Amino acid sequence: MSRYWSKTIKNIKPYTPGEQPKDRKFIKLNTNENPYPPSARVIEAIKKAADESLRLYPDPMGEELRATIAGYYQLRNNNVFIGNGSDELLAFSFPAFFEPSGSPVLFADITYSFYPVYAALFNTNYQLIPVDEEFNIPEEGYYQNNGGIIIANPNAPSGKGVPRETIAAILKRNESSVVIIDEAYVDFGGQSAVELITDYPNLLVIKTLSKSHSLAGLRVGYALGNEDLIEGLIRVKDSINSYTVDRLALAGAREAIKDDAYFQETRSKIIRSRERVSARLLEMGFKVIPSQANFIFVSSGQYPGSVLFQQLREKGILVRYFNKPKIDNFIRVSIGTDQEMDCFLEVMKAIAGA
Ligand SMILES: Cc1ncc(COP(=O)(O)O)c(C=O)c1O
User: Is residue 19, in this structure, part of any structural domain at all?
Assistant: First the structure.
C-alpha cells in the first residue's frame, strides 16, 4: 500500500492470472491455452512483418485485419473493432457503455472474474445473478433494471453455454442496455450470437484469437457489433492509446483468420479430446459439468478442489482451482494434447482409487 496510490487503486482487488511456472516443467492445464501451435502460416506472416517498417507506428484501426474479420463474418468493416486481447475490449466497454455509479451492470456470480475488477476500476455498480447448482444462469435474472449486461458464453469456469434463442430473448427485453456476449470459448461448441448483430443494435460480441487460434501470446481480440457501438469503443481507444495492436500482431492475426482449415482441424481435435476425457472421468466417478469450452470443470465429491489441485501439482500437472463459495470443490482443467490428458487421467484414476 502506498500513500501515492489513488483511492480506487488502494481499494481494488486486481485479477490474478493463472500461474505461468518458470521453475519446473509442468503439464500446463491451468490457463485455457491451446495445446497446439498456431498455424505455420501465422508464424511465416509474423516473420515477414518483422522488417524495417517496425520503425513506423501501426495502422491505428488495423484496417486490413478489420476487413479480413468483416469478410469472415459477412459484416461491414465498421462492425469490427480490434484490440490487444479481448480483456482490453472488455475493459474499454466499461467506460464506453456503462455509466459510472449508474444502474447496476448484471453478470453471473460465477463467471470470468475480471468483470468485477473492471467494474471497480471504472466505478461501475454491478449486481450478481446467482447460477444454480448445475451452473445454469436463470434467464429471468436479466429481466430487471440494469445499466448493461455481460454474459460469458460459454461461461467460465463452468463451460456451460447459453442457446442463441435465449440470448435473443435477453436482447429483446433489454433494448436500452448494451448486452456484451464474451465468446472467448464459443469455437469449442457454443452457439455464437454474431448472426443476431444485424437485428440487435444493443449487442456487442467479443472474441479472441487466444484460445481457438492458439495465439494467447500475440494478444489479439475483436469486438463485433452495430457501428455505433464500435464508434464508442474507438472513442475510448483514442482517449487512452491509439495504437493498441502492433504490426506483428496485425500480420499474424490476419493470417490466423485466413487459415480456416487449420482452425477447424485444431478446434475439432480439442472437442474430441474433451469428450473423451469427460467420459473417462465420469466412469471413474467424478462429476463433470457438460462443457462447450476448451476446459472442463470437475469435482470429486470427496476432496475439495484445493486437494485435487495439490495432488495433481505434485505429479507435475497444473490445473486451476478457485477458493470461492459454490466452486471450491471443483478444479478447472484445460484440454491439452491427448498425451497430456492421458497423464492427467492416470493421476485422476489414482485419486479416485485412493
Ligand atoms: C471468459 C473470458 N473472456 C476473456 C478472456 C481474455 O482473453 P484474451 O485477453 O486473451 O483475449 C478470457 C481469458 O481467460 C476468458 O476466460
Answer: yes
Q: Are 170 and 141 in contact (CB under 8 A)?
A: no
User: Which string of DSSP letters, residue by residue, matches 15-61?
Assistant: --PPP---SS--EE-SS---SSPPPHHHHHHHHHH-SGGGGSPPPTT
Q: Is 263 left (phi over 0), alpha (psi -120 to 50) or beta?
A: alpha
Query: Atom 7 in ligand 1: which residue has the minimum CA distance?
Result: 86
Pocket around ligand 1 at a 6 A CB cut-off:
32, 85-87, 112, 152, 156, 182, 184, 208, 210, 216, 221
- pLDDT of res. 263: 98
The number of domains in the chain is: 2
Query: Can you tell me which residue has the cell 452495430?
Result: 226
Domain ranges, residue 349 = 7-37+261-353
Q: Give the confidence band of 25 by pLDDT, cuts at 50, 70, 90.
A: confident
CATH number of the domain encompassing residue 255: 3.40.640.10
CA 101 to ligand 1 center in whole angstroms: 25
Q: Could you say which of 259, 290, 320 is where a domain stops?
A: 259
Sign of the dihedral through C-alpha 273, 278, 279, 285? positive
Closest C-alpha to ligand 1, atom 1: 112
Q: How far apart are CA 262 and CA 218, in angstroms?
A: 17
pLDDT digits (tens, 9 = 90+) for 233-258: 999 999 999 999 999 999 999 999 99
Report the alpha-carbon distance of residue 308 to residue 347 in Å, rounded.
10
